[in-house]
């Protein structure tokens, strides 16, 4: 039985599109039961409809600071669609601790940095200002703290002196589109387990490749 997943978006929805594409494969262990946007003007909604995915808008704005009120409406929608797992994909609304605890171990988020470095806003700018030579993306379980929680999967890219926040974000986005479907596959097929703050993957193997940045040009030395 495929696990029933809700993807929550607020914006352009490129990670959502990557998840929908993966879920269209016959052997993918999850199906996208519903795409929920908290904004009626999210560009991702049209992408979801074009991909044939069911969509619904649960506007958060009318609830203002009443997070619990919004979550009651959201939870009702998740119940209606029999949702078992949630993927946050550029969902820009914070949850109450109660909602997060209710979905603990069943709700994933993706963030464009190698967490725990650079959580929050402008992670690409933060990475450039810190001068890191390698950055990337992280899929993690959601906990009450923003952009934190047991890490399920990460992917890395090198950072060059010529990068701007835009060029770095473009490269990291490619990694995001690769790791989010892979991470969901692992979760939906029961191949991960939580041990306290750490997520372990059954039969996990480190990839054999190094990523070194910058690379020294031996010939030019
Ligand atoms: C993605 O880069 C995602 O990692 C980021 O928002 C973008 C959404 O793009 N999420 C966060 O920064 C979470 N703190 P998308 O709508 O095209 O998937």
What is the strand and helix layout of this fold?
Layout: E1 3-9, H1 14-23, E2 30-37, H2 44-50, E3 55-57, H3 67-80, E4 85-88, H4 97-102, E5 107-111, H5 123-130, E6 134-141, E7 151-158, H6 165-188, E8 192-195, E9 198-201
Parallel strand pairs: 1-2, 1-4, 2-3, 4-5
Antiparallel strand pairs: 5-6, 6-7, 8-9
Helix pairs in contact: 1-6
The protein binds glycinamide ribonucleotide.
Glycinamide ribonucleotide binds near residues 12, 111 and 173.
In words, what does this structure look like?
There is one protein chain. By secondary structure, the protein is an alpha/beta fold. The protein has a single domain (3-191), classed as 3-Layer(aba) Sandwich (Rossmann fold), CATH 3.40.50. Helices cover 31% and strands 23% of the residues. The strands form two sheets. Strands 3-2-1-4-5-6-7 form a seven-stranded mixed sheet, with helices on both faces. A hairpin with a 2-residue loop joins strand 8 (192-195) and strand 9 (198-201). It starts with a strand and ends in a 20-residue tail after the last strand. The mean pLDDT is 96. The structure holds glycinamide ribonucleotide. Glycinamide ribonucleotide binds at residues 9, 11-15, 44, 89-90, 110-112, 147, 173, 176.
